[in-house]
Amino acid sequence: MFVHVMKREIYSVSSPRILTSMKLFFCFHLATIAAVVPGFNNPSKLVPQTALVTCDNVSRHLCRRQISSPCPCSKNKHHSRSCRSDVSSALRQEANGFQSRHPHIAFVSPLLEDGYPPAVHEFQQRLTQHTTHESSSQLPTKKRKPLLLYLPGFDGTILAPFIQFPSLGESFDVRGMTVGMADRSTFEELKSVVLDYLSSQCKCVTDKQSCEKYDEVYLMGESFGGILAIEVARELRSRPKHSTVQLRGLTLVNPATSYLRSSLYNLGPPVANRSYPFPPLTFLQYIISLSGQLVPLFLDQGMAFQQLILMLSSKALPVVLNSPQREAYLGRVAFDLANRLKFMPQDTLKWRLEEWLERGCTLFEDQLMKTQQNADSEKEGLLSLKGLNTLIVVGELDLTLPSVEEADRLASTVFDSARIHVVDGAGHASTCGGSLRLIQLMRDFFPDLENDVAGTSYNQPSNPDLIGLVPRYDNAPIGLSPLQYWKKDYYQRLDNQTD
Question: CB–CB of 281/124 below 8 Å?
């Protein structure tokens, strides 16, 4: 009902300020609540479907035909067709997503998926470069950006840190794992899928010498994804069969390794296991339990709302939103939230609390105990994680997990090369929000990352009155109009050209 009312308002209100305000409301308020906890499966026609670029759209277009960038050797009749079908195969697989054994698990590029122009241009340039080098039997000379793989919380979406993706894309090829609500993979199966994906991306997928591969990999895990990322990192560093994956760094955001000592552990299972007395009203009773008992755990104490007011009044923006392209990207994601927020059924909640969080946390504690018992092999316990540069980012006011306390425990018992960053005033769901300058933290901490990205600076001092934000990049009195979000300069599809 609420979404249908908002739909009518979006199409009937013409004021740019009101439209911009509605955009920011959807993006920073609803995403804060629903990016980590079960959301509502809203109607799918809030935005005209032709304006959206989803992973499925990209997949269908790339499976049906070749990438639409013109082939540099298209005039060579002996090479043109084979060039387009063979040389671009690895790049098409990258956009199309890793074909997992589990149908509800996918690995996607959030920036390509949302038509962010710098990411689309870079993808097409790589395709052109490799086509050219294939035709001349030469290897590419430009080093590829490292892979950054984001592993999500138990909601299985990549919404929580979406505001960080454009700035992270300056230094990384950003990918994320998504898990559908119907998935019933165990923790061990999730780990196996991630390891298979990394192995496929760090080895040539064809016999051709010019095939691309990633030389370096960084992992980022948030909440439940933090448990999974730690276990994947341990496996990568302790098993010779994964030696092709060069793991350079680990970033943990509110890692759920403390789940067994958390408020979520005390309140979540009763909601997931409750039998409701009136079957016809079971759905409504479940929603009431979620809203009253679990949702408050993921909120902060008003910081996100205060930032929202500043953005609505065009007084400030997150420092990572430093261009019209990024503001348009933000708006497109906001308008598409109705498609991306999915309802989590009670049986899915029960499965993920037990088989993901509880099982994963128990496994972590077992590995930690082996480490503390002075295991003599890096294949046992967490000894293999010693020396791995690990950035731990936590929200100061996380009510879901004891994240600040857990960061100290991890830094003192597991990671001997760790740095802790506490986001002031942030709750569990808003840690990766507007106050965080994640790309700058990563550049400052990980020595292998390049720090001299031209034209980019995230060292602007924060004004305390702006609550972690900075003045708008253009000092405009009104934000970018939603009518601009899908214009060519701000939005591009992979298939926006013809053969």
Answer: no
Helix or strand or coil: residue 390?
strand
Cβ neighbours for 36, distance < 8 A, ≥ 6 positions apart: 153, 154, 155, 160, 223, 298, 400, 428, 429
Q: 344: number of CA atoms within 13 Å, CB side?
A: 25
N-to-C CA span, the chain: 43
- Residue ranges of E strands in 15-129: 105-108
Other C-beta atoms within 10 Å of 273: how many? 12
CA distance 437 to 124: 28
Mean pLDDT of the chain: 78
**Residue 454 CB contacts under 8 Å (≥ 6 apart), including other chains:** none
Q: What ranges in 336-425 are assigned the alpha helix state H?
A: 337-340, 346-351, 359-372, 403-413
Is 488 exposed, middle or buried, given 0-12, 13-18 or 19+ CB atoms closer than 10 A?
Answer: exposed
Hey, what amino acid is at 110?
A: P
Instruction: Report the distance separating Cα 347 and Cα 351, nearest Å.
Output: 6
Who's near 362: CB < 8 A, 6+ residues apart? 260
**Is the pLDDT reported for residue 70 higher than 50?**
no
Rg of the Cα atoms in the chain: 23
380 touches 370 (CB < 8 A): yes
Measured distance CA(153)–CA(224) in Å, rounded: 5
Task: Name the one residue in this structure whose structure tokens are 């509502």.
Answer: 40
Helix residue ranges per DSSP H, 136-210? 165-168, 187-201
Alpha carbons 71 and 83: distance in angstroms, whole number: 8
Chain position carrying tokens 């994804």: 225
**Residue closest to 402 by CA, chosen among 269, 219, 213, 255:** 255
Q: Retrieve residue 16's tokens.
A: 């740019």
Does this model's pTM top 0.85?
no
146-170 pLDDT tens trace: 999 999 999 999 999 999 999 999 9
Within 13 Å of residue 483, how many CA atoms lie on the same side as its CB? 8
Q: What are the C-alpha distances in Å from 426 to residues 225, 308, 395, 400?
A: 19, 14, 5, 12
Task: Identify the pLDDT of residue 156.
Answer: 96
As a whole number of angstroms, the distance between CA 435 and CA 432 comes to: 8
